[in-house]
Amino acid sequence: MITVKHISKSFADVQILKDVSFVFETGKTNLIIGKSGSGKSVLTKCIVGLFEPDEGEIFYDERRLSDLKPKARKEIRKEIGMLFQASALFDSLTVEENVAFPLNMFTKMTKEEISDRVNFCLNRVNIINKNQLFPSELSGGMQKRVAIARAIAMQPKYLFCDEPNSGLDPVTAIVIDELIKEITDEYNMTTIVITHDMNSVLEIGENIMFIDSGENKWTGTKNEILDVKVKELHDFIYVSKFLQQMKRKR
Amino acid sequence: MCKDNYYCLFWIISMIPAFGKYMTMLYSIFLKPEKFSIYWKRFVDEVIQLGLKSLFIVILMSGFMGAVLVIQTASVIESAWIPDYTVGFTVKQSMLLEFCPTIISLILAGKVGSNIASELGTMRVTEQIDALEVMGVNSIGYLIGPKILASLFIFPVVIMYSMVFGFLGGGIVCYATEIIPVEQYIEGIRSFSEDNFGYVRYALIKTSVFAFLITSISSFFGYFLKGGALEVGKASTKAVVYSSIFILIANYILTQLILI
Description:
The complex is a heterodimer.
Chain A: E1 2-11, E2 14-24, E3 29-33, H1 40-48, E4 55-60, E5 63-64, H2 70-78, E6 80-83, H3 95-106, H4 111-124, H5 140-152, E7 158-162, H6 170-187, E8 190-195, H7 198-204, E9 207-212, E10 215-220, H8 222-225, H9 231-237, H10 241-249
Parallel strand pairs in A: 3-8, 3-9, 6-7, 7-8
Antiparallel strand pairs in A: 1-2, 1-4, 4-5, 9-10
Helix pairs in contact in A: 3-4, 3-5, 4-5, 5-6, 6-7
Chain B: H1 2-29, H2 36-51, H3 55-76, H4 85-125, H5 128-135, H6 139-143, H7 145-177, H8 182-190, H9 193-223, H10 229-259
């Protein structure tokens, strides 16, 4: 479980996050949704420690991030898997080397054990016989799946996915969503997905936070979101005429 | 004049935060590696990438430069009182003191510097550096440390090749055109041999300093890049310009310190 309490963050004079609080629950896919520029990525980067919040507290289970020394923070980071928007696979490494990277760096596993684990993770995301290819030789969807394989290689307790569907066709996007959901259930992880894709929200949104202009405007589940009364979220969901007509029919 | 002083002062003040960032970057390089074997592999890869892959262009340039120096020197010596071996001596002095360490380093600043800045800049833009940080890897130590160490190791070797092939280029021209006898050229190269070791040492010290400047400055501009593809290009250009400027400044200071 990850708890954020009263997080605020500014860059220069621009306040990006304003007093954001939320509990990301274990074993669930927790979604942060909102428009582009609403502060979703900044909040995530604060949670993983890439940015230091100006105010507020972040708890990884019982561990308060701001109390931890750099070495203890590093230990927490080993419990984090992250899927980046652009996959962020290392260009100079093959698929196999990418997935093996954290295992090589942080474990004392033998070559055979690493190879077994890499193949297991790649099979889990349905990447087969692509071990020796470089990221540039893969499609966008495959890159995402390899990035998921790398993220789960260390069996993380916390999985962060920054817009996992961006740049993917709707079919592949759903495949990636389902994969994230399956892995979350399988490993009982605390998964945080940042998205503005309503398909994802309705597919995997078990615990949702809506951010607008850096503020937490709504929290709920995928079953509650379509009947929401909050204006900003309503406008966010029913932005297309098609969805507006669908709502009227409902 | 007064206005120029203000600009100069403003430039120096604006450079202070960047210098602080640069020093912090250098400090992070020397933090304990997560796993030595991985860093060693990175070091070997960088030796190949930065040094061995630059060898061809360095050998080609040095060979032709040696050849051209022989022709130019021989063509301007008209007096019968000046012995032929002066050509070899001039080539040796030019190659050892300035061409091999400084000019080749400036060329490497262009080739290697832009390569490093664009590589790290692209990694920053595509969030690969963030990925390393989230994993708990000291990204500066992992990405930049091996580059600096590899350049400190391999650039002096590259410069030694440059010296050898520079002399060889001159020798081939002497043999092919008979502009001066080859024996005289070799005698010129070997003349005042008691000073040669000192000159080579001076060249290698300069090269090591230039290697550090090229890799650290280029890494700085690539690693701390903000923005997108356009900024990668700009960082690459800045890396080459600043590396070249600092090489020229260091060249003057080292020459003053070592040779005078």
